Amino acid sequence: MNDLEYRQLVLDPISASFCGAKWYNATIWLGSGMTTSCHHPPAHKVAVADVEHNPKSLHNTMTKKMDRHLMKQGQRPSGCEYCWKIEDMGRDAVSDRVYKSRIYKIEDLTRAAATQDYEDIDLKTLEIAFDRTCQFACSYCNPAFSSTWVNDIRRNGAYQGLESDGRNHFTHIHDSAQLYNYGDTNPYVEAFFRWWESDLHRTLDELRITGGEPLMSGHTWKLIDWFRDNPGRSHTRLAINSNLGMEFDVIQRMLDRCEGVELDLYTSNESMGPHAEYIRDGLDYGQWTHNMERIMRSKRLRGLHVMCTINALCLESLPEFLTYLMLWKQDYGPDFPSFTLNILRFPSFQSPLVLPDHIRMHHRDRLQAWLDRWDRNMNLHPHELNHVQRLIDYLDVVKTPHSDAFEMPRLHNDFGRFYQQYDQRRGKDFCSTFPNLKSWYQSL
User: Does the reported pTM lie above 0.85?
Assistant: First the structure.
């Protein structure tokens, strides 16, 4: 069945708001003790006392248990607004609750719906970040997830004059995001490894390590070595998120240590050449493509996935970038690489919705032309086709990034002020990099 049929026939009979991720998936930032059920709801704190008593509390928090209760009643948890906004677009729009549920067996979803609210649920898919160490400082990231962003704020101070940044992404170094340094006693890391050794390595289908840049963390290599030293002990698939912004010998070391492990690699990009290097500060686009090519030629991975964060600036060359991915697929197969289009909502002033209507509709039409060209290509996965169509509809229909977004004049103010300061701090030039946006940008 297709994704819409799956929602109608599998999820909606359980409830109109049911999502398997609330039971079986988690992202946990072990450096700060924060967790969420997927990337869309805001993260919330895990109590140290809870994990010292029960490591499964890293996932089974009271917040998640309350959300599960609401979903079983068919009510919409407010933190899951991203999916409700997509579904409310109409046009039979498919939200991420479908994709994040479909990876689980139907009987597991049925079992989840029958659980008691107080029960601890064993995870099936988990993403963990040990710390925020990262050599990039992407424009849509912030100090909570990048040590290089921390250094920017320490060196140059807070970004000034941003009115709509209610989460204060760019005003301080977010010390609460990294409570423990490598080598410190970290109760969250200790709880994770206790849980891993006791039973998580048996119950988990997939473990994904993210960051920061996870290949810069000693804890990541400790976990990789556990897989190497315990062959056959766990059937958990291992996945690693990497920006691939390093010399290939580091990547080769990872591939060699993961010999015999079912390994997926996730990386991020969403535009071409100078556009990519502007958005993802620290990226060497030539090195990234070179590393991608060598990884695909190695034939050492189960899959290689490109996560595209759809922001206002990447639309300038997104269709060309997607074509580049399709040409790789023709050479190496449909999973090398696969891609997802993840629409940015925070910070709101970098959303694609801040663009003026005529520019946004221009990008919508270019994406439609791309889809008309490629939609029957056998290498394009159904979810990839749906993600492109969803973005086209989003650009056409949705008017605000999220319910708490400020009015558009304030978003435009922040767009202009942020990139003026970004250029000065990073030695970049918005107008020469994005000449099609120059007139509009200079009018802000």
Answer: yes
